[in-house]
Amino acid sequence: MKRKHKRLTFVFVALILLTLATSLVLIAFEDNIVFFYSPTEILTKTEEPTQRIRLGGLVKDGSIKKSSSNEITFLVTDNKNTIEVKFYGILPDLFREGQGIVAEGKLNNGTFFAEEVLAKHDENYMPPEVAAAIKKSGQWQGQLK
Amino acid sequence: MTAELGHFMLIMALFVSLFQASVPLYGAQKNILPLIKTASSAAICQLFLVTAAFLCLIHLYVTSDFSVLNVVQNSHTDKPLIYKISGVWGNHEGSLLLWVLILALFGSAVSIFGNNLPASFQARVLSVQAMIAVGFYLFILLTSNPFQRVLAPPENGNDLNPLLQDLGLAIHPPMLYLGYVGFSIAFSFAIAALIEGKVDSAWARWVRPWTIAAWIFLTGGIALGSWWAYYELGWGGWWFWDPVENASFMPWLAGTALLHSAIVVEKRNSLKGWTVLLAIITFSMSLLGTFIVRSGVLTSVHAFATDPTRGVFILSLLIIVIGGSLTLFAWRGPKLKNVGLFQPISREGALLFNNLILFTAMATILLGTLYPLLLDVINGSKISVGPPFFNSVFIPLMIPMIIAMGIGPFLNWKRGDLISALARLRIVFYISLITAAAIWTVYVEGPFLGVVGITLAAWLGAATIAEFVNKIQLFKAPLGKALQRILIIPRSAWGMTFGHLGLAIAIAGITGAGAWKIESIQSMKPEDTVNVGEYKYTFKGVKFKEGPNYITTIAKFIAQKGTNSKIELYAEKRKYNVSGTQTTEAAIHTTFAGDLYVVIGDSNEKNGTYVTRIYFNPLVAWMWAGTIVMMFGGLLSLSDLNRRSRTSYNKRILPVSI
């Protein structure tokens, strides 16, 4: 193979890889990005989002209820608006009232059906999205780290 | 007093590293031997000072000195001794101290084991090391001082986050850091080579053992972390494509590429610029990892309490290191002349292909990890990029790489023969086909990707063994000859065989756990039974017990497959006295075919039931076993390379006595 051809082969392989990677990334981004909303943002939307979303906020005090079938219902608040969340399964260890959480799932007629609930390692930790959402709702009191 | 002593030692270390970063470098540029020689002693001095500071902090923890803020925030008198010690690096300030300790450790390793390097080159390497150290000392002293006192010492401390009171997590950060920081050596070698404008096979022989050592630690650190997530978080998963996990995976991918491209530099005196660039990128990824973990800019299941000023500091450090080294590369890189281009179909061609894919994979993960941050900065939208993204990008990239991994070792250096290589892989190909057909018939309804994964694992495993058989000419030469050949195979070749075999085993494990996992959530009363997979589980009720600093609920389960013997499983839920937080201790019973995994949740007072989550995670043990085999392969290579790098340099240097 001539020098020029060798060089061309490498350029060609690298280009194919680049194209492949770019298209993979673009396709994956299209389908798999999950947007984050606060309760206020969801309620001010005219149309209910149909895709998978993340909802973040504080678990409202005294709102956790368990049915006999172990379905858990609680309210997530940004101290301005609240949304009802339903979840079936084992909650994370750090889940408790007043704690900042992020739930992933889908909305249906104003109720959020969570497939996953994330709470953090550290009990003082506030997910940055939740902190931003509460600040945006004007209810930030700075008492939470 | 101890706290002030530790603080003082750290400040001293900063000054020593300032000296080490400048004087030997100047000496090397101007060829002043006495100045060059100061590098080694400075490195060892630095190690002494940092070790002293680290011991001071350990002492403060062990004696529970609550006049020190860091101890108050992360310790408690009731904590078992081992977690008092591991608590030292279980927090931000302490873990940074561990980081600089390891950096100093590697620095003095270069000065002790590197006495066969050309003196001026060694001095330059140590100077670059010291520059990194200066950045981190400043970071610790200015933003994260572990020795800060509190004005009014409290009675007792806040205790270490209970999730971190765990043996696996006591050794996970040191392992991970040994990997991250270990790549700083490859980085310093690359920068020193750029300053000298020379990269040759001797350079590669020197860089390779350090890179492999770092790679072994990083592999172990990542595996330990995901093992911890597997048994401690109780989600039945072991990898979540979480930003913090990605942060450790990116340097691993770049480091693996570096490992392979350095071979090409050594054997063929080619790919020099690329290898130097990879060394820079690998360490930059390590720094980026530190930034992601320590700044808390990304929402992560692993995020700890954070402070924005620290993030800004690390970000600036990141920009200086990456920007500076890339500028140096752009300026000096063109001086590194390769010995012409090589044939695409050859061993070096295959290694370059592997490099391109690993690099692409790393770049896509980087994009997915930082994209939410980017979008937030641009228009304030909050998004998250989750596992589906990474899976759908990463897996398709790995498929061609694993196919190529089977073929590559059969190609010769310089000019390979693809046709004859494929001919020799005929049996391997049939084995893979049979495996695919077998899996396909057994798991018709399972995901197709499962079939692909196991087939690839079989392909890679069989091809690796075939290459070994070919190397010793088993079945071709008489058996005695073949066995003799086994003895003369260099250990680095054994290293490749084990490394690739380990990956094959791990792929089987990853595929199994990903594709055929069975999950079942239900509420159970004592004596209730549930079938999950091939096992029948009986819930035998709960007991309450008191641990050293927690109260635990222990749920007993009995699992039985057909009429086989009964397996007892104990799942725990612990509540820690000081912080009131709960942790989950999953009950795991490992078998060859998979793990039985049981988690106990909250009780429902109304009807006395407990939420239970039961998993069958196929082939998980294979994943851990594969990782251990890979690390063992790395160790074999390391022992060989270490010997070779010493002899070769000795030969080169002896005539020119310094």
Q: What's the gist of this structure?
A:
The complex is a heterodimer of chains A (145) and B (658). With 145 residues, chain A is α+β, with helices and mostly antiparallel strands. Helices cover 31% and strands 31% of the residues of chain A.
Describe how the helices and strands are arranged:
The complex is a heterodimer of chains A (145) and B (658).
Chain A: H1 3-32, E1 33-37, H2 39-44, E2 53-59, E3 65-66, E4 71-77, E5 82-88, E6 100-108, E7 111-118, H3 128-136
Parallel strand pairs in A: 1-2, 5-7
Antiparallel strand pairs in A: 2-4, 2-6, 3-4, 4-5, 6-7
Chain B: H1 2-30, H2 33-62, H3 69-74, H4 81-86, H5 92-113, H6 119-143, H7 167-196, H8 201-232, H9 243-268, H10 272-295, H11 308-332, H12 347-379, E1 383-385, H13 387-407, H14 418-424, H15 426-442, H16 448-471, H17 479-488, H18 491-515, E2 518-524, E3 529-532, E4 535-546, E5 550-560, E6 567-576, E7 582-585, E8 587-590, E9 594-604, E10 609-618, H19 620-653
Antiparallel strand pairs in B: 2-10, 3-4, 4-5, 5-6, 6-7, 8-9, 9-10
